[in-house]
Specification:
Strand order of the largest sheet: 1-6
Structural class: alpha+beta
Pfam family, one: UstYa
Protein name: Oxidase ustYa
Radius of gyration: 19 Å
Keywords: Membrane, Oxidoreductase, Transmembrane, Transmembrane helix
Family: Belongs to the ustYa family.
Largest sheet: 2 strands, antiparallel
GO molecular function: oxidoreductase activity
Number of domains: 1
Number of helices: 5
Order of helices and strands: HEHEEHHEEEH
Length: about 190
């Protein structure tokens, strides 16, 4: 029972924050390079237009059991794409491209793991849920959204407390649809071992 309560709470918090993560206006330093794959950028070299998004509640679709709705969020490539190495390398034996998973898709995957784990109450799923919980925690902290959300005081436990649902708050975002279109048009090549 406690597992279900924790999972439900995690799903609510993660769903709330994913919109900021997906639409974040954070512009990363494009001159840093990937430490796990030296010589490659850490960010996909694509410009995403800035947009605003007003958080809503009661939106049709995307419920716990709406598999088809959730599937529409994922690019055909499952988020993997090949990225070219900048032409600064003098070693002709170095690979000119490497395959990467775009973090937004990993984040969507984790939300889907929470959703499926909660909806089906899967046993043996805890390890994957824990990985995703830790991953999403770090992503939320990394993006540190400073959007202000209106206080909605309420009576809880016999006393007035501060609360915020985030509904109606306007977030400065990046257009995730442009990224999905890019990934659909630029899937990764065959797996290299």
């Amino acid at each position: 029972m406690a597992y279900c309560i924790v999972l439900a709470f995690t799903l609510q918090i993660s769903t709330f924050y994913v919109f900021y993560i997906l639409y974040s206006s954070h512009v990363a330093n494009r001159h840093t390079y990937h430490t796990e794959t030296p010589g490659f950028p850490t960010q996909l070299p694509i410009d995403l237009p800035a947009i605003q998004m007003t958080l809503q509640t009661g939106e049709p679709g995307f419920s716990l059991y709406a598999d088809a709705d959730w599937a529409t969020l994922f690019p055909a490539s499952d988020g993997f794409t090949d990225v070219a190495r900048p032409s600064t390398s003098s070693n002709p034996n170095e690979a000119s491209t490497a395959t990467f998973l775009v973090s937004m898709v990993h984040q969507l995957h984790c939300l889907d793991v929470f959703r499926v784990g909660f909806a089906t109450n899967r046993t043996g799923y805890a390890h994957h849920v824990e990985h995703c919980l830790r991953y999403m925690l770090q992503i939320v902290l990394c993006h540190a959204d400073t959007t202000l959300e209106a206080d909605e005081p309420g009576m809880r436990g016999g006393r007035w407390t501060h609360a915020a649902g985030g509904v109606g708050s306007v977030h400065e975002c990046r257009d995730w649809r442009v990224l999905k279109e890019y990934l659909d048009a630029h899937p990764a090549g065959p797996v290299r071992v």
